[in-house]
Structure formats: structure tokens, C-alpha cells
Design a protein that fits this description.
By secondary structure, the protein is an alpha/beta fold. The chain contains 14 helices and 13 strands. The chain is globular and about 65 Å long.
Length: 477
């Protein structure tokens, strides 16, 4: 057991809480690895100043809106163009926040690049004459080290075996099928991909989709509905939130990675049943992610599976950020903990990160996958994945599995682990507050103040570092 600077180290001998209010735990099963996550407490004066900073921005925004409506101030903010006879289309709190906070530093978001998003990339410089309602290119670009991409294993490139194979697939299959899987859009390369994904994950079967976001949002309504209960981690991705809402099931959230809170809600669901009807829930689905993209934390999957078995629930695991990035052979958080993949009822992931492609997959039993093939909106209405994208995934996955006869895949996975640990360790040494698991490739560095978001992004671009800045409401304030 070790404890330092607000960090938590959990070993098979015991645990110690880390003081992070949304990360309380009870216990972890026996595991040979140390499980260390950093959630250093925010200094109280920093927290107060951060709230004060947002308060000042909101106050000044309201004053400026009042002066503008009274005709006492010129247009110095990005406002919706006024059309005679029409009420404002975007008049809401969201538009206020966008106008007075987001658009002030819009140059830091949605930056266009003009090169491969590899180890380095060329970021185009923009300027504006209308307070960032629109932007114009200056003609300059900055060559920066790519620290803001999810290209974890470096497979997103325009040269090499993956790119060459993808090019050949276009010559054989064309650019696309222009049809859904159920309407003449299912090629042999799609079947090959489904079989390889299932084998890679150690599952009975798999189905692939052309869009990662839709893999969650369009498939969840096919799995649960009215009379079912979804227990969702409070920090789940927007695609999981949307899919849960579209399903029509009752949704309850539990505190992030807090197994005590999850068990409390599971127990209440089993004992009390559906509200006002006292009938048992048709099914209970626990929805979690492998690695959380804003916090960098890793799900306590062994405990989730224990609770799933204890209360006869189902587990929906989103491995978008963990597949290819965790585990000795890149098979995600399940391999990271040494668990049996068949204990996961619905295993979802994307190809947009480690595999350098696009789309997503769902793996599970043959019965589950056949059900999705026939009932999922993503299978019925969306066109199938482009053959070149399929080939990119097939090639990169084969390299990771060592089927190319080299150790290139293993080398890249080991390099990612080394980079992750080194980067986190050195940032902490320099005094930064870094969140997340020590093995997580997502490395959140906290700057707190909204005014610092723009400053640090612009400074990093000038210094040759390409980073992503994220603020409220995409993260907790």
C-alpha cells in the first residue's frame, strides 16, 4: 500500500480511498497488478477562483447583452444575425454561453489540419473579422507534435502496409457499396472483418458499424426498452446517454466508478422493482466504459462483473478508448484485468482510435449478434462500412495480432505503455495536476480557469505542441 499526493494505490493487500468525491470504492478482487489512479484534490483557493471566473464571465455577458439590446454598445460579440419578422432561433442559455464564453476562444477549437494526423501534423492558422462567427485562413500553418489525437498505435498513416492494402481494396471493391447490410451492401470483406473482430476479442460473434457514435446510440434501443432499467455511470459518453434515452428504458446514474453506489442501486432495483407497479424489471443493464475519455480513469471491471453476477444483471462495456490501448496484446480492459471476455454480455468498441480507421463494433453471443443484424437501425438503415476502411481495420488488427509475421504490433503496444507512463510521470514531477489511471493513454492536465484554455492552447501551438483543450460543460466545472 502506498499513498502520496492524493494518489490512490490499490493492491491485493487492501485499498485506500483517494479523496475524489466521485470515485469512492469498497474493495477490489484479488489482482496481481497495482491499480493506481490520480485524482489530486483541487486547492480550495483555485476552486473558488474558478467559480469566480465563470461568474464574472456570466455577469459581464448579461451586462453586455443589456447594453446591446438598449443600443448602447456596438456588436462586439458573435451574435445570431437578426432577421426581420423572425424570432431568434438560438435564444437560450446555450446560445448565451456559446456567445460569451465559447466563441471568445473559438480559434482554439475545430482547428483544421492539412496533413496526416501522425506523430506530427500541420495545423492551419485562422483569423476572423466578425468575432468568430466565421473564420478565414491566413495561409500559414504550424508543424506541431500531435498530442491531441486518439491515434494510439500510429496506424493512421498514408504509407505503409495498412495504406497499401486499403488502396488495393478500392481497386477491387470500389469506394463504397451505397447500401445497407440488408440491401445488397454486405461484401465478403465485411464478413471477414466481423469474424476477425470476434476472434480478436474472444467472443462468439461480432457485428461492425460504419460510425462509432451510432454503434451505441442506434443499437442500445434494440437491447432494452420500456420496463427495463439502465444503470449508467454518471460520466458515460454522450453516445451512451443518447442511446439510453432513445431506448425508452428507465435510466438511473451511479457515481463514477463507485461500486458501493452501484450495488446500492442494484439492490434497490431488485427489491423495489418498477416504480408504482412493483413489478420486477424486465432486465437491468449496467452501462460502463473501459477508459473514460475526459478523466482518464479505468473502470473497476472485476467488481462490476461480480455485481452483475450477484444481481443477475447484464453488462454493456464501451471499450472505445481501451481496445488496442490496454492489455498485454491490446485486447482492452478485459485483458488488462485478466478476465474472461464471455463474462461481458455486450462488448462495444470503436475503430477510430487504436486501429486508425472509422466505425465501431458490438461483440457477444451469436444469438445477440443475430438479433442486432435483424433489428438494429444501424444495420437496417445505414450503409455498410467502406471497403477501404474495412481493409484498414483488417490490416492493423492483423498486425496487432502478429499475423503479419512480425513483432510490430507488440512493439507499438509496448511503446504506448512506455509513452503513457513517462508522460504522466514527468508532468506530475513538474507540479501539474494530472487525472486518471497510470496506464490510461488519456492524460487530462487540469488548468481550471476558462481564460487559461485559450492562452495555453495558443501558447502550445506557437511552441510546436498540438493539444486539445476541453472546458465546461464537456467536463465538470
Amino acid at each position: 500500500m502506498k499513498h502520496q499526493n492524493g494518489n490512490t494505490v490499490i493492491t491485493k493487500d487492501g485499498i485506500k480511498t483517494n479523496g475524489h468525491s466521485s470515485n469512492g470504492i469498497k474493495s477490489l478482487p484479488e489482482d496481481p497488478k497495482d491499480f493506481q489512479e490520480n485524482f489530486e484534490e483541487t486547492p480550495i483557493y483555485i476552486a473558488v477562483l474558478t467559480y469566480l471566473c465563470y461568474g464574472i464571465l456570466v455577469l459581464v455577458g448579461h451586462v453586455r447583452d443589456f447594453l446591446r439590446n438598449a443600443g448602447l454598445e456596438n456588436e462586439k460579440a458573435c451574435t445570431e444575425p437578426r432577421q426581420s419578422g423572425f424570432v431568434p432561433l438560438f435564444q437560450s442559455w446555450e446560445s448565451f454561453y456559446t456567445r460569451h464564453v465559447y466563441r471568445r476562444i473559438r480559434d482554439c477549437f475545430n482547428r483544421p489540419i492539412c496533413s496526416v494526423a501522425g506523430p506530427t501534423m500541420d495545423v492551419l492558422e485562422r483569423t476572423t473579422t466578425n468575432h468568430w462567427w466565421t473564420a478565414d485562413l491566413t495561409g500559414r500553418s504550424h508543424n506541431v507534435i500531435n498530442l491531441g489525437s486518439y491515434n494510439y498505435l500510429g496506424f493512421s498513416d498514408c504509407k505503409g502496409p495498412c495504406a497499401e492494402a486499403a488502396e488495393k481494396s478500392i481497386q477491387k471493391y470500389g469506394a463504397g457499396t451505397c447500401a445497407s447490410k440488408q440491401e445488397l451492401g454486405f461484401l465478403d470483406i465485411h464478413q471477414e472483418l466481423d469474424l476477425l473482430v470476434a476472434e480478436y476479442l474472444g467472443m462468439e460473434a461480432a457485428i461492425t458499424m460504419p460510425m462509432g457514435f451510432a454503434t451505441n446510440s442506434m443499437n442500445m434501443p434494440s437491447l432494452v426498452g420500456k420496463g427495463s432499467l439502465i444503470l449508467s455511470d454518471e460520466l458515460n459518453h454522450a453516445s451512451l446517454v443518447l442511446g439510453s434515452r432513445l431506448s425508452g428504458a428507465t435510466i438511473k446514474t451511479f457515481k463514477h466508478n463507485d461500486m458501493a453506489d452501484l450495488e446500492k442501486k442494484l439492490k434497490a432495483a431488485v427489491v423495489d422493482g418498477q416504480p408504482r407497479r412493483s413489478r420486477a424489471w424486465k432486465k437491468i443493464l449496467i452501462v460502463v466504459e473501459g477508459v473514460y475519455s475526459m478523466e482518464g480513469s479505468v473502470i473497476r471491471l472485476p467488481e462490476v462483473i461480480q455485481l452483475k453476477k450477484k444481481y443477475k444483471a447484464y453488462v454493456y462495456l464501451d471499450e472505445a478508448h481501451s481496445i488496442g490501448a490496454l492489455g498485454s496484446t491490446g485486447r482492452g480492459v478485459v485483458e488488462y484485468f485478466g478476465l474472461n471476455p464471455r463474462d461481458i454480455d455486450v462488448m462495444m468498441g470503436t475503430f477510430t482510435k487504436s486501429f486508425g480507421a472509422a466505425g465501431g463494433y458490438i461483440a457477444g453471443t451469436k444469438q445477440l449478434i443475430n438479433h442486432l443484424r435483424l433489428n438494429s437501425h444501424a444495420s437496417i438503415y445505414s450503409p455498410t462500412m467502406c471497403p477501404a476502411v474495412c481493409q484498414q481495420i483488417l490490416s492493423s488488427m492483423s498486425i496487432i495480432m502478429g499475423r503479419d509475421g512480425t513483432l510490430e504490433g507488440k512493439k507499438r503496444i509496448e511503446q504506448l505503455k512506455w509513452n503513457t507512463k513517462y508522460f504522466r510521470r514527468e508532468l506530475i514531477k513538474k507540479g501539474f495536476i494530472i487525472y486518471g489511471n497510470d496506464n490510461s493513454p488519456v492524460v487530462p492536465l487540469l488548468v481550471f480557469f476558462p481564460t487559461k484554455l485559450g492562452a495555453i492552447n495558443r501558447m502550445c501551438i506557437e511552441k510546436g505542441l498540438g493539444i486539445c483543450v476541453v472546458g465546461f460543460p464537456a467536463t465538470q466545472l
